[in-house]
Queue: 2 jobs
Job 1
Amino acid sequence: MTLFHFGVLTSNVHMSWMRTVCGRLKSDYRYSPSIYNNFPWCIPTAEQKAKIEQTAQAILDARAKYPDCSLADLYDETTMPPELRKAHQLNDKAVMQAYGFDYKTMTESECVAELMKMYQKLTEGGNK
């Protein structure tokens, strides 16, 4: 997996898609290949891609500062390290900009609606 792919897959854009389209097992999300395969990827400029790679690396660097912590520890909402939270916020912003989304005002439901429009456009070509 490239840093670009990691950045997009860990972004709020992909997480919004995942929460909407994935199945559940009890209350846990069930991520399957169809979640990834149907996800409408952005087509970033070279500058946007470089920014996402930079912010993705910052997430990995922030995680590396806590080698004795599990991902569950690092992503506990009440104890998440500030530098990891900030790295994710910057990554979210970079990914949303690559999609052309307004990172300041777009809600999760608006994000999913736009992704669904993108998905529909991608699938229309094969249905004609």
Note: The radius of gyration is 15 Å.
Job 2
Amino acid sequence: MAIRLSDSDDLAANAEINITPFIDVMLVLLIIFMVAAPLSTVDVTVELPVATAKPAPRPAEPVFVTLHADLSLSVGDRSLTLAELPSELEIATGMKRDTRLYISADRSVPYGEVMAVMNRMRGTGYLKIGLVGLEETTEGATP
């Protein structure tokens, strides 16, 4: 702050930025957000009903379609090609299109190849398709 000693004295231009009001505004905004943030989360208590239905029974003899690392295909223990897959599935399921089929593929098989097998199965009329994977026994490790 400059003080005039007389009317004829000119004050020098003050080129400094006073950031005190800026800091005050920022602190007020910080406090507002700190108070408002917990209020924006809403806790709704919902009592969900307990399911009493029994789980669906597992099939006695599931049909596994396996895609190996070398892109060979097999249904059960029988090796086949992608063109032979529909007829082999009809034999394995007894022409029952509502049978659940399981696909297991090697980790190194490209995703596109797995999708090609699934598309062939869906094109044949088998819509219940499950994917088989390994369950982790410990954190980050597979058996």
Note: Residues 63-131 form a domain with the Nucleotidyltransferase; domain 5 fold (CATH 3.30.420.270).
